[in-house]
Every structure is written in structure tokens, then in C-alpha cells.
């Protein structure tokens, strides 16, 4: 999953009756999605969005609990907000502070105790009750709501307006599934996001249609275990993710489909085949493997081996020869030996990844990994991470360099950094910029790649895109 430790601000346009709100999102795409839904909800209550803390009457931190560093960052951010709140109080102005997301779920009332300036703590399955909670907060109550009710949440959330959708650009997330039943022994997600729940097919189709009608061209289906999707249709029949993707592949207006994040165990053959049969499904799969050592994978409770993972990639490449892979890795899981780590490097060499996310193991309270007595030294973790990241970076650069001289499809998303430029993404999520007219934003086009920088590709427009027709 694409994790950002830097916050991303959700954007929306709305009237100003309720004051101004800033929603800062940390962590995974699910949090980015939730942040936009909170913005939609508060927009309906009359809140206007701002990207500036200084303007905000309400600041919501949509937090991540996946690693200790992510959680600690929230408390330092809260410390700064507390100072701002105090300074405003001295001027007779108020600022409400809400902690949402996974830190809220995991720590609940502790957050209120640890930081007195926090007004509300609201979990990822209860933020639809924010309007009511805010009313109570305005009367001076400090509350925590971490109840789980996924169905109630989706029913209660308003759909965004066309203007809100347009302001967010041509690529959008749609949540199809939440939660995780896998209980990998390092991970807090099953505790913070709860059990796997799939949204009904009709809800997903309606939300997607609305986005596409407002001009969205790329849909990324998201879920903590997206490929475990099993949602009911109107007849009560369960659809797999592959079936959902095939249906969306027929929806007019969609140029690109993606899905994230998958688990190897749920990488069913129909999903692999979908990469051959659905032209709009991008040839890029994010599939976390975590480790290349079977011993460590077993200790992590991953329920797959390194060989299973390689076999999935073999079948994906059979279905779609140009498929590129990205993954997540953890180094220094308790008990990991030099030989285990060497197995991870060997697996990476065998696959060749286009991009990756890699982390030092961080013991999380309440997870089985944290109880183990054979924790790895911080210094060893640091060395292993450096070695792993240097190999992954080499592969990423090689992958980017290999696109030079090729002609690829780009979906243009926004104006480029320089006058007369437009910027978009390759099928492999690489940022690409070309000289071209702004009216091509929202379109796909064929681009000859002429150079690879360290983080983006430069190209030349050579023709109209094919993807939209696929
Ligand atoms: N320590 C380090 N990395 C972790 N991840 C999940 N839990 C931990 C942890 N305790 C990583 C995994 C997962 C990604 C989202 O975050 O690699 O795939
Ligand atoms: Fe965490 Fe494992 Fe579930 Fe992914 S599959 S969310 S790593 S428990």
C-alpha cells in the first residue's frame, strides 16, 4: 500500500456556514478515501474546506497506527495544534481538534488523556456520526466514538457533488472492502479496522457511475484486502473482485482500472485472468510479500511461501506479459537471521520490482510479534533496510530507464510544473510530463518516452490514446 508519512489534504468546495475545516490524512489510501468522505459529510453541514491550518476552525487528523513512528508523529502534530489552540483562546477564538483514523481506534480515550487539547476521538467506522459529535463538542463535551458499524457508515455518508468530484481530479478511489481477517503477526489492521466486510455491488456501481459522470477517468478499487472482495449483488449472489472489475470494464467513460491492496492468498485465478481479458485493467499489481524467507513468512502468519508468490507472478506474466510488480517488505521481524534476509534479497532479484515500500519491523502493542523475545537489534534492522532499499532503488531506476525509447499510454491528470506542460501517469504509476495543451487533461494519449529522471519520465505526444476504447 502506498503509505505516506507526510499528510495529504482532502479538497472540496462547500458553503462556509459551519466554518472552515482542514482534514489531514496520514498513511494508506483508505485514509485518503475516508478523508474525502469526511469532507463531503462536513460540506453538507456547511463547512468549507481549507488547506491552511491558520484558517481552520476545525482540524481533523486522520491518523495511521501501522508503525510506531506513524503514531508518534500524530502526538507531535497534536502538540503543535494545542499551542495554536491556546493562542487562539487568548484571542477569544475557538479551534476544535478531532483525532480520527487508526490511532483513534487503537488508543481511544487514551488520546484524550494524553493530549488535553483534543476535543473528539472518532474511529474509522464511526466518522459518519461526526456532525452529531461536533454539536456535542461545541457544548464542551470531550467524546470518544470507536463503535464498529460499516453498513451504517456507508448508508449515512452523503455522495459528493459534481463540483467536489471535479476538484479532486481525474483519478478516484472507491472503497469496495474494509477490514482484515488475516492476522499477520506484525499487523494492527485487524484490530483497528475490524473484520473483512465487502460493500454490496450496487453501492459500488452507483458510486463509480457518479464519479465517472462528473469526469473521473481512472478508478482504483481499494480495500485492506481488496482481492478478498465478496460482495452481494441484488439477487444475493456473491461477486468476486474479478467479476466486479469485468463489469466496471464495460462502463463507458472509464479509461483505467486499478485495485489495491491485495494479499497473495486471495490472488485467485479469475483475478489473474482478468489482467488478460480486461483491457482497461492496468498491468501493474501491488502485492505485498513482506519477506522472501519461508521461515519468517510462517512466523508472520502469512499463509504463503516465497514459491507461492513467485508462482502468482509467473501466472500474472502469462496472462499479461507487460505486467509490472510492486510490493511491501518488512526487515527485522523477530528471529530473522542473516540467511532469512538473504532469501528476501534473492526473491527481490528473481522478481525485479518496478516500485516498493519497505519498512523496519515495528513492534505494535497487542500483536503477537510484539510479544516475542527474539526482537532484532535496531542497528541490524537499519543495515538490512539500507541494503534492501538500495537493491529496490536500483530495480526502480532500471525499470524507469527501460521505458526510455518506448511509446506508452499516459492518462493526463494536471498541468505540468512548467508553462505549456501537462502531467499524467503511465500504466505503471510513473509520473510523465510532456509539452501539450491543457485540454488534454482527463484524456489518455500515446507518449514516446525520451528521458527518465529519478522520479518522473519526460515524453513527447505521438497520438491519441487507445485505452479508452479498450
Ligand atoms: N512494522 C513494520 N511494517 C509494518 N507493516 C505493517 N505492520 C508493520 C509493522 N508492525 C507494513 C507491511 C504492510 C504495510 C502496509 O505496512 O509491509 O504491507
Ligand atoms: Fe495487516 Fe496482514 Fe491484514 Fe495486510 S493482510 S492488513 S498486513 S494483517
Automatic annotation (TrEMBL):
The record's subcellular locations are: Cytoplasm
User: What is the protein's name according to its record?
Assistant: tRNA-2-methylthio-N(6)-dimethylallyladenosine synthase
Q: Which residues form the TRAM domain?
A: 401-463
- Family (UniProt): Belongs to the methylthiotransferase family. MiaB subfamily.
Q: Name one Pfam family in it.
A: UPF0004
- What organism does this protein naturally occur in? Methylocystis echinoides
Instruction: Describe the location of the Radical SAM core domain by residue ranges.
Output: 166-398
Q: Does the keyword Iron-sulfur apply?
A: yes
Any one GO MF annotation of this record:
tRNA-2-methylthio-N(6)-dimethylallyladenosine(37) synthase activity
